[in-house]
Design brief:
There is one protein chain. By secondary structure, the chain is α/β, with parallel strands linked by helices. Helix content is 39%, strand content 10%. It has one domain: Alpha-Beta Barrel (TIM Barrel). The strands form two sheets. It has a four-stranded parallel β-sheet with strand order 1-2-3-6. Strands 4-5 form a two-stranded antiparallel sheet.
């Protein structure tokens, strides 16, 4: 598995001739799925997916929603989408650094805790024919860590401890977010 912070055409080089990496993480796809959560506009996702075409049959894109780093606005094609995602719930103000084009946020933070939006985002991820990668805690709706002081590294907001108490409650609840995501996975 390879991580490339570039556009699909740049990232495709990591596949080689199907003899190097078999999975390359698709960062532009993640940013575009996240920007579509508030309005359902998947045009950016479709554009990135079209640019992602043309890899070997033994290769796959790694598809994630959020991770241990940050959400990069750089990969959004227009200023409106960048502003919309950054302003959603004050994400850039709360979890970014001034002058930065990225912020640290878990999926539930971007969805403002709305389970329907979280499920919608997972459905988009699972509908694409790549390898889904789930960042720990997203499956139970974990929010960003509450820190006493503003961290030097804003990524600390998404690197908190896993909430085992909440996970155990959700395991027992057939209507929980965790079990609904499990159902989506089984349908995949």
């Amino acid at each position: 598995m390879a991580e490339s912070g570039g556009w699909p055409n740049e990232a495709k080089t990591f596949f080689g001739y199907q003899d190097e990496c078999q999975i390359v993480i698709n960062f532009p796809l993640a940013s575009n799925i996240l920007s579509a959560i508030s309005d359902g506009d998947l045009s950016g996702v479709k554009k990135v997916w079209e640019e992602s075409d043309g890899i070997g049959e033994l290769c796959r894109w790694g598809i994630f929603l959020t991770n241990h780093d940050s959400v990069d606005l750089f990969f959004l094609s227009d200023d409106y989408k960048k502003k919309k995602l950054a302003d959603e719930g004050g994400l850039m103000d709360k979890f970014g650094h001034e002058g930065s084009s990225s912020f640290a946020a878990r999926l539930s933070e971007i969805c403002i805790g709305n389970p329907e939006k979280i499920l919608w985002a997972f459905q988009q991820q699972f509908d694409l024919p790549g390898v889904p990668i789930i960042y720990y805690g997203n499956e139970i709706g974990m929010r960003n860590a509450k820190l006493n002081n503003s961290p030097t590294d804003f990524r600390e907001y998404v690197r908190g401890n896993f909430d085992w108490d909440d996970a155990n409650k959700q395991i027992k609840d057939p209507d929980s977010l965790l079990n609904k995501i499990r159902e989506l996975i089984l349908k995949r």
